[in-house]
Amino acid sequence: MNCFDRLNLSRSTPAGGTPITIKDVKKAYRKLALETHPDRCPMEQRESAKIRFQELHAAYEEAMSIIEGGGSPDEAFCNSNNNDNHCGSSGTSSSYRSDKYSSKSYNEIQKTFKDVCEDMENESNNLTETNNQKAIHAAESAWTKGKKEEAWKEIKRQFMLPSYIQNLVEKRWSESKPDLAKYILTALDQLQMETQNSIARMQQEKVDRINKEWPDLGKRDGLKAWAVDKWWPSDFNDIADFVKDRNAANEIRAWKKVHIRNIDKYLEKEREKCEEAALKIADVFPDKKAIRSILNEFRFSSDHQYIYERLPESIRKAIVGGDSSTSLFSDDPIVGDSSASLFSDGVIHKRKIDVNFILNCFSIICFVLWLSGYLE
Fold this sequence. Notes:
Layout lengths: L2 H4 L15 H15 L9 H23 L37 H39 L3 H11 L3 H12 L4 H36 L6 H11 L2 H8 L5 H39 L3 H8 L5 H9 L3 H8 L34 H17 L5
Helix pairs in contact: 2-3, 2-4, 4-5, 5-7, 6-7, 8-10, 9-10, 10-11, 10-12
């Protein structure tokens, strides 16, 4: 069994019929290295895991030298001291050895593994930037041809959040293409207005349902269950102000307390999810893509901070100890502009105290007070 088999790669071609590339080798090595990494093993198994990790690294180095040298995987067999030593199969301890790599230290192998992970992460970021650039160029091309709506569709499709679109317009077109910038911002305002109108329609539908069904005593429990389960916190007071029956208005405001208790239960479940996420991150660390996938399930920075505080101390030190400013899991979609994030390539960034940050803090405080009933 050769080093390509050790990496679970076909000797000739992988699925799809294309020749094995450097990217295929790196991807296979990264996957297997994460599965067998010593840091993921119990303390009593780490020495044997280090041996497997070193054996896998030797297979990776051999495969890379063959591909980079233009060799064929079909001709690649293990470079062992005798014919009895071969590459081990996946999931078992390999006896693969190569004199060429036997002198490499564990720290050097760790560095190679980290470099491979960073290379693949950079490829992913480059792909995102490429897609952003394609959308920008497509919008500019459509605008030049007079296809205004098509330009807007390209931007709306790739940059889904309004803040991203506004940032893009400010950095890219505010001076170079003011007409395009004005059109995009006008379309964005219209989209936001349509969203607000949609919210208003949904709220009016709730008011209409209350006015229609409240006189029926048999339906009131159903109305309460529906409101407590489906409404936003702001709905209770807003809808109470518009219903016809004053007794209904008072009852709706009382339902809000039940809703808040449900929110508390929900937040407790979210905290449990955060604790589970911390355990998952500890398992996959330092796989940036896997960590990003886990963290993307949580929208708020407070959740990210909660997760970080529950990571093992060794991982927290590894994160804080880095010096890169590239975001690990939260990239700014504007091309060429990476944003600071809680978890980054080995560093926790200190947030700048700016106006937006202060306003966000004030909004959170008001929301908490409002939930507590102080701002009714």
